[in-house]
Amino acid sequence: MFRNRRIEKLLKILIIFVFAFFVILICMLRQQSDTENDNTIERIPRQNESEVETALSTASKSLKKLIKCKNKIQKAENISSGKFFIFKNYKIASKHFDCYDSITYVTHSDFTFLNNVVPLLQKWNGPLSLAIYAPGSDFTAALEGIFYLQNCHKRSYLVKKFTTFHLFFDESLLNVSQINHMPMKCSESKKYLEISQRQTFRTKNKLSYPINTARNLARSASITHFVLVSDIELYPNPQFINEFLEMIFNNENLINHKNVFVLPVFEIVQNQELPNTKYELQQLYLDNKIHWFHKQICLSCHLIPFHELWLIHTKQQMQIHSSVKRQAPFSNWEPIFVGTNADPWYDERLSWEGKSDKMTQAYIMCVLDYNFNVLSNGFLIHKPGIKTVAESARPELEDLNHKIIKEIILPEIRFLYGENENCEMYT
Ligand SMILES: *[C@@H]1O[C@H](CO)[C@@H](O)[C@H](O)[C@H]1NC(C)=O
Ligand SMILES: *[C@@H]1O[C@H](CO)[C@@H](O)[C@H](O)[C@H]1NC(C)=O
Ligand SMILES: *[C@@H]1O[C@H](CO)[C@@H](O)[C@H](O)[C@H]1NC(C)=O
To answer: What Pfam families does the record point to (predicted)?
Structure first.
């Protein structure tokens, strides 16, 4: 009796030890795979991470068969384009995605907009490809800003995990000592994120913002099949990636390169928390705290088809709410959409200051007969604060963009893509 008890006790202890040993072993293996993830660029075999990210897993595994895309390896490249020096994949996100696994948020900025990166990632939780225009001493500032986001911010892990940074500037402004600048201290680098646009090298030297070069750079560097080319101050609703991929999974026939998927854009009053769901958005709209984007500047540039019906639509599942061609009455429409790298590129001759910078792409998509499918449950909200007309008026450069579009780009497009009498180039 006594012996048996002792053996029983010993056995129990032994079992606990063996169990503890395995727990520690598993933890160690986990940690090792995490650090590998952070340091290597190349494809790492997926360590059951799909089991953790449950919502996505089922859809994405089967999406592999539906979306016949090729995985891409990210590697740093220094490119001289003739006009610009480009540091493509200057800092690469630590988390690798398969091309069918997610959507890349593709965007651009100068260093003064870097404050948007963390709030954006908190909503997006997926890959971000960001091209930063950094001429002259703005390059130093951009390096400091990136350093701060990657190493000092309390949510640095989000930045490191998801963000791939690209930098570019005019070749005529090359200054080697600025390129080799090495940020060292969080307290120093924080200051750069507080500099206003008026104090940048770009503003002081009256350089126009090469928005379309930035868009093309960031889009071409994305490693997923689907891309959302957007502006860095537009925050998506959380869960968008999963809900979108699930919709695609359930409707294979949506996978067609002539389909793009539009997210309606709203603006929200100052000091208001952003809605996370369509239901919350509807409530805020009723309270007059949310408006259609650019209500005061160019409503028709953003207003979606059947917008009133969209607002009262309340199905839980992501659907196509409406589908239109970019013809009248939508010839003036500048929608933001999920597309792919097969879509037409942005014309790099157009500056941001001159506006209409996406119009030529939209026009080509009209000629090519694209379908613009408006999503029922996806949306973008501009960072709080309503834009007014005065902030966005840049008349001389608007005239220049219009002239370039009319006299140079439009004849080219007609030559390259043919004509479609239903398409209008609104400028
Ligand atoms: C991953 O999960 C599968 C099934 O759940 C299991 O068979 C496999 O051993 C796991 N792999 C690792 C590395 O833990
Ligand atoms: C690109 O240039 C920078 C600055 O000279 C250098 O530090 C970096 O190693 C270069 N990267 C590649 C891929 O050549
Ligand atoms: C190059 O950059 C350094 C550091 O910002 C600056 O001190 C120097 O004046 C610059 N040189 C030129 C030619 O602009």
So the answer is: Glyco_transf_49 (PF13896)
Nearest-angstrom CA–CA distance, 338 and 89: 22
Give me the pLDDT at residue 45, please: 43
Q: How far is CA 364 from CA 163, 191, 346, 349, 421, in A?
A: 30, 43, 10, 16, 12
Q: What is the chain's Cα-based Rg?
A: 24
pLDDT in tens, 228-278: 999 999 999 999 999 999 999 999 899 988 999 999 999 999 999 999 999
Say which ligand is closest to the CA of 76: 2
Beta bridge partners of 129: 106, 164
Q: Please, are residues 109 and 146 in contact by the beta-carbon 8 Å criterion?
A: no
First and final C-alpha spacing in the chain = 95
The pLDDT assigned to 387 comes to: 59
> Chain-centre distance of CA 210, in angstroms?
18
* Spacing, Cα 173 to ligand 3 middle (Å): 10
Predicted local confidence at residue 246, as pLDDT: 92
Enter the tokens of residue 303. 């207003």
**Could you identify the atom of ligand 3 that is nearest to the CA of residue 176?**
1
How much is the pTM?
Answer: 0.82
The per-residue b/e assignment along 122-160, b for 16 or more CB within 10 angstroms, e otherwise, is: ebbbbbbbbbbbbbbbbbbbbbbbbbbbbebbeeeebbb
Q: Is residue 348 within 8 Å of 301, Cβ to Cβ?
A: no
Q: pLDDT per residue over 354-392, tens digit each?
A: 777 888 898 899 999 999 999 999 999 999 876 554 455
Residue 181 in contact with residue 143, Cβ under 8 Å? yes
Distance of alpha carbon 161 from alpha carbon 18, whole angstroms:
34
Which residue has its alpha carbon closest to ligand 1 atom 14? 48
Tell me, what's the pLDDT at 47?
46
Alpha carbon of 78 to ligand 2 centroid (Å): 6
Count of alpha carbons within 13 angstroms of residue 249, beta-carbon side: 21
**CA–CA separation, 128 vs 107, rounded Å?**
8
Low-confidence residues in the chain, pLDDT < 70: 1-3, 27-61, 295-299, 386-394, 426-427
Residue 49 C-alpha to ligand 1 middle, in angstroms?
10
Among 48, 50, 52, 53, the mutation site with the greatest number of ligand 1 atoms within 8 A of its Cβ is 48
Q: Any idea which residue has 């006790």 for tokens?
A: 9
Return the H-helix or E-strand segment holding 385.
none
Q: Give the start-to-end residue ranges of the domains of the chain.
A: 77-232, 233-420
